[in-house]
Amino acid sequence: MPSSRRQLSGFTLIEAVLVIVLTGVLMVIVAQFIVTPVQIYLNTNQRVQLVNQADLSLRRMARELAISLPNSVRVTSTASSSTLELIPSTGAARYASEGAGKLDFGTLDTSFDLVGLPLTLAASQQLVFYNLGPSVPDANAYADNSSAVTQASSNRRMATNGAGSASTITISSLAALPATLLAPPFRVYAVEQPITYRCDRTAGTLTRYSGYGFVAVQPDPPSGGSSALLARGVSACNFSYENAIVAARAALVSLSLSLTAKVEGPGSGTETVSLYRAVHVDNLP
């Protein structure tokens, strides 16, 4: 009878407590070897995404600056935002400045020939002649040209050829192109509507605006058109434009962008990635 009791007896309370304690210790050890590395991996991946987001945003800005119309970059900075605007060009060609088919300045002329390769045009393509920038009268592509009066001091016209390549260009012109625009290297640029990159430090966003048209005074932010959010979590940014730092016909655009995100787990807090890019801009009109 005593041996039967010994066979039927179970774990004692002390043994049960000991198993629970050992199981808890094992779980803590497993957590240290599995959970922590996983969290570190997730945090590293988040940092990589921050770098990629900032890098892609700056690369996109640099690509469009590289093809911008000479002297079309405008920058505005306030306490809460930094805004960069440019006019993208789609092509350039040399117009005839003498002989048959030449382009006349100071006299109304709606047709001219190109020298060399033809120019590829889109429907209602905007053309710009000898752009010197917003501070130069008669040579500012942003200026209004909606009437004969405003066109008399505008260097922008609309081509009426239609889409396709053309060696002879026809333009819609209500007034003569200013005579001061006739200057080497005698180039005409095909351009699209302006583009704006606006960094809002208050909202922590970087946004690209397009399709809002040509505005004489730089809009901040632009109204109308469309917008696309490029980056969130912007903690710092700065755009600057130095048009005399390289040479008389060159400029340097400096772009800096900092993105911040929350980091969980070990070393929790915030992680900030800061990138800088300098872009050379050709300002030979």
List keywords for this structure.
Type II secretion system protein, five-stranded antiparallel β-sheet, 38% strand, N_methyl_site, transmembrane, 23% helix, membrane, 285 residues, alpha+beta
Oligomer: single chain
Question: Spans with pLDDT under 50 lasting ≥5 residues?
Answer: none
Look at the structure and give the mean pLDDT: 88
Q: How far from one another are the termini? A: 112 Å
DSSP strand (E) fraction? 35-45%
Written as H for each helix and E for each strand, in order along the chain, the element string is HHEEEEEEHEEEEEEEEEE
Mind summarizing the main beta sheet?
A: 6 strands, antiparallel, barrel
Query: Structural class, from secondary structure content?
Result: alpha+beta
How many β strands by DSSP?
16
Structure description:
The protein is elongated and about 110 Å long. A hairpin with a 3-residue loop joins β1 and β2 (81-86). The strands form 4 sheets. The chain has a 6-stranded antiparallel β-barrel with strand order 3-4-9-7-6-10. The chain has helices at 2-8, 13-66, 148-151; strands spanning 74-77, 81-86, 89-95, 111-115, 119-121, 126-129, 156-159, 164-166, 168-172, 187-191, 195-200, 205-210, 226-232, 234-247, 250-263, 269-282. By secondary structure, it is an alpha+beta fold.
